[in-house]
Design goal:
Ribosomal Protein S5, domain 2; single chain; about 300 residues; lpxc deacetylase, domain 1
Length: about 300
């Protein structure tokens, strides 16, 4: 049986919010079978619980933000990507501010902390969402798509005309049957351009951004002294974002995701379109070894641990 997973013990992460600039601490704690992923604003005693779901994403300006009864939990995509990559199904995430900490701008710190806390299997089958037919969302020249696939695969293309982002490094396909989320995706950092900083600040965004938590580019080059972690770190970070955005579904996908110039808004619209078409997906559990698709046997332990 492919089982649900939670943490062995609680773990804490502290840092600054990328957009708010606020100091924030979150505690991640084990949760019972079938609880799902639950965010709680512990600084607001009367705030509602957030059981992650696509219809709670109501702000996608440079991040994915849950909004319920006027209460916000912002910039959850990197944390959600870590949950997805480690196959976590049931967790309480208690946060004392409106935005998760950005840490180093990737999912790597979250992955490390979660692994240190320990991950345990629970005596219940993991629930997957299997894509049964192609679902696509288009806006202008941007598009995102989910297609049937015997495993989990992500393909993305970005488009930036910038000397530091070569044309050959703007497309990537990651098949998690033979690629590790931890080594190949989790360390890819968010990025931004100096000329966008003033605009972001006017929107109330990017107040916590720095060279410590983002790749920063001027008109010609990467300004970070340590350079890039991957040659194609920019598009790999977009893959990291997409994995996190898709995991707001609350369950792992069996299917192939692809996109061109996609972002948080498009990713969320795709999830909503999938769920709106009952013929496009189905619930799946694997309670016997012979039920598991062949490619799932090859998935790396650092991605849903199948």
């Amino acid at each position: 049986m492919i089982q649900q997973r939670t943490l062995k013990q609680p773990v804490k992460a502290s840092g600054v919010g990328l957009h708010s600039g606020d100091r924030v601490t979150l505690h991640m704690r084990p949760a019972p079978i079938d609880s799902g992923l639950i965010f709680r604003r512990v600084d607001l005693p009367d705030a509602p619980e957030f059981h992650v779901a696509p219809d709670l994403v109501n702000d996608t300006r440079l991040s994915s933000t849950l909004v319920k009864e006027g209460v916000r939990v912002a910039t959850i995509e990197h944390l959600m990507s870590a949950f997805a990559g480690l196959g976590l199904d049931n967790l309480y995430i208690d946060i004392n501010a409106q935005e998760t900490p950005i840490m180093d701008g990737s999912a790597a710190t979250f992955v490390y902390l979660l692994q240190q806390a320990g991950i345990v299997e629970q005596n219940a089958p993991k629930k997957f969402v299997r894509v049964l037919k192609t679902v696509e969302v288009r806006e202008g020249d941007k598009w995102v798509r989910l297609e049937p696939h015997d495993g989990y695969k992500v393909s993305l293309t970005i488009e930036f005309r910038h000397p530091a982002i070569s044309k050959s490094s703007q497309s990537v396909t990651i098949d998690f049957a033979n690629t590790s989320f931890v080594t190949e995706i989790s360390r890819a950092r968010t990025f931004g351009f100096m000329h966008e900083v003033e605009m972001m600040r006017e929107m109330g965004l990017g107040r916590g951004g720095s060279f410590d938590n983002a790749i920063v580019l001027d008109e010609y080059r990467v300004l970070n002294g340590d350079g890039l972690r991957y040659e194609d770190e920019f598009v790999r970070h977009k893959v990291l974002d997409a994995i996190g955005d898709l995991y707001i579904l609350g369950h792992p996908l069996i299917g192939a995701f692809s996109g061109f110039k996609s972002g948080h808004m498009m990713n969320n619209k795709l999830l909503r379109a999938l769920l709106a078409d009952a013929s496009a997906w189905e619930w799946v559990t694997f309670e016997k070894p012979e039920q598991v698709p062949n490619s799932f046997h090859r998935l790396q332990p650092a991605f849903v641990s199948i």
